[in-house]
């Protein structure tokens, strides 16, 4: 792969004298940090199963749009090659690109104020993407509700085969739970089509954010951005705050307080929170199944997500009423959005 990296760098810089370092992110694609003339960049060679030319052009359009909005945080910007292109098709057929580097560390989610700031970032990204004129897009990504199309190696037959004959031990209770959720989703997935739609990042986890001096300054990884139910972004990030806080309603409320500064929601959306949460987890599981069929070891990640899915669904069953009251108070009420 070193030859491919050298080939990619040649398209951007005359001098191949660069330093390279590993990164704590980039599980889907080959991702490294390179330093050229004392300036850092992020170099990426994309997984051929999950990124194609239309997807790369789409990602560049989205990050350019967000950059032009002068948000209080940065997003990676695609550099132009010496030929003026946004990405490169390498001689091995894979696609590669170099994007801007954002200095910072992964923020923490340890107290209410950090939950509020996290909510603000999610709300502002969502509010900004709401205003993107999607009619200008030739490609709009793949909605997470398209659970059998998120990975080319994870169609319905491949997923069914995997779950009926898992390549590693899966607890029987989790297998039964998954089948129950799939059956439920088959009956109710049409309800998501009636929700407001917009561009959704889908991966605004704390691990894809960067902070300096306890303030979030960067938002990364737009690989899974697509048109989807607007409230999906909220559902994914609420799940994340609950996961990181062991189910704290206080931390969830802090997140909601931050989010509502930029976004409101409808009762129709709030009523579909649990279904959206189920779709999210199933989508991630199916993506991992695709990675398995591509030869990647998914045992740890798949097991973690399936366990989290079970825990979160049980938590929502127990705490749904209290959570709904919070959501209706903030997202439907007269709480000021500024």
Automatic annotation (TrEMBL):
One of its GO terms (molecular function) is amino acid kinase activity. Belongs to the pseudomonas-type ThrB family. Residues 25-259 form the Aminoglycoside phosphotransferase domain. Pfam families: APH. Gene3D superfamilies: 3.90.1200.10, Phosphorylase Kinase, domain 1. It comes from the Bacteria. This is Aminoglycoside phosphotransferase domain-containing protein. It comes from Paenibacillus pectinilyticus. Transmembrane segments: none annotated.
């Amino acid at each position: 792969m070193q030859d491919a990296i050298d080939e990619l760098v040649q398209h951007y810089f005359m001098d191949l004298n660069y330093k390279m370092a590993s990164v704590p992110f980039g599980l889907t694609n080959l991702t490294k940090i390179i330093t050229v003339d004392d300036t850092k960049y992020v170099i990426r060679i994309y997984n051929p199963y999950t990124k194609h030319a239309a997807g790369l052009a789409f990602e560049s359009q989205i990050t350019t749009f967000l950059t032009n909005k002068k948000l209080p945080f940065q997003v990676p910007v695609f550099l132009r090659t010496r030929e003026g292109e946004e990405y490169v098709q390498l001689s091995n057929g894979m696609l590669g690109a170099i994007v801007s580097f954002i200095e910072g560390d992964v923020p923490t989610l340890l107290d209410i104020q950090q939950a509020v700031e996290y909510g603000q970032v999610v709300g502002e990204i969502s509010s900004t993407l709401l205003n993107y004129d999607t009619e200008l897009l030739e490609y709009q990504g793949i909605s997470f509700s398209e659970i059998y199309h998120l990975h080319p190696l994870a169609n319905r037959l491949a997923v069914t085969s995997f779950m009926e004959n898992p390549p590693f031990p899966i607890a029987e209770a989790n297998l039964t739970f998954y089948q129950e959720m799939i059956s439920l989703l088959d009956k109710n997935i049409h309800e998501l089509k009636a929700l407001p739609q917009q561009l959704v990042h889908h991966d605004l986890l704390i691990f894809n954010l960067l902070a300096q001096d306890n303030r979030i300054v960067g938002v990364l990884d737009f690989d899974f951005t697509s048109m989807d139910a607007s409230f999906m972004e909220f559902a994914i990030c609420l799940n994340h705050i609950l996961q990181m806080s062991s189910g704290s309603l206080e931390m969830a409320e802090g997140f909601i307080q931050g989010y509502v500064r930029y976004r409101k929601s409808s009762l129709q959306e709030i009523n579909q929170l649990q279904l959206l949460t189920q779709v999210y987890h199933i989508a991630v599981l199916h993506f991992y199944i695709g990675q398995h069929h591509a030869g990647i070891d998914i045992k740890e990640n798949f097991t973690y997500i399936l366990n989290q899915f079970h825990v979160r669904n049980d938590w929502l069953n127990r705490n749904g009423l209290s959570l709904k009251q919070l959501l209706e108070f903030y997202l439907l009420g007269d709480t000021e959005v500024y």
